[in-house]
Design brief:
With about 130 residues, the chain is mostly helical. It is about 80% helix and about 0% strand. The chain contains five helices and no strands.
Amino acid sequence: MRVLRRIPRPVRFALVGVANTGVDVAVFVALTLGLALPPVAANPLSYAAGMVFSFASNRHVTFAGLPDRVPPAVQFARFAAINLGSLVLTTALVHLLTPSLDPVGAKLAAVPVGLAWNYGLSRRLLFA
């Protein structure tokens, strides 16, 4: 953990974001290509996997050592609410883009929108 604290917090946040996106996309690919789940059904499941990973990683890596202002359950509920908005946005984009892109391409196109939403609201409302 000492090594991680030497890495600036914004860099840790970005690294967690990359890993979180990897979890999300990997689960999405497994569900759509491996299990033949429709993209709109796979997106909420893959997003949830990435969200849980992101919350745990941000609490224990990005913001390690900061005092908890609220209990972890309350913080997770707030985190989940922010992510629900992102899920709605990304699922709508996957739905709209799938006719013109393959499902993975549609997912990858939706990712930046979700990241921008989550970062903006998390920075202002959750980890401020």
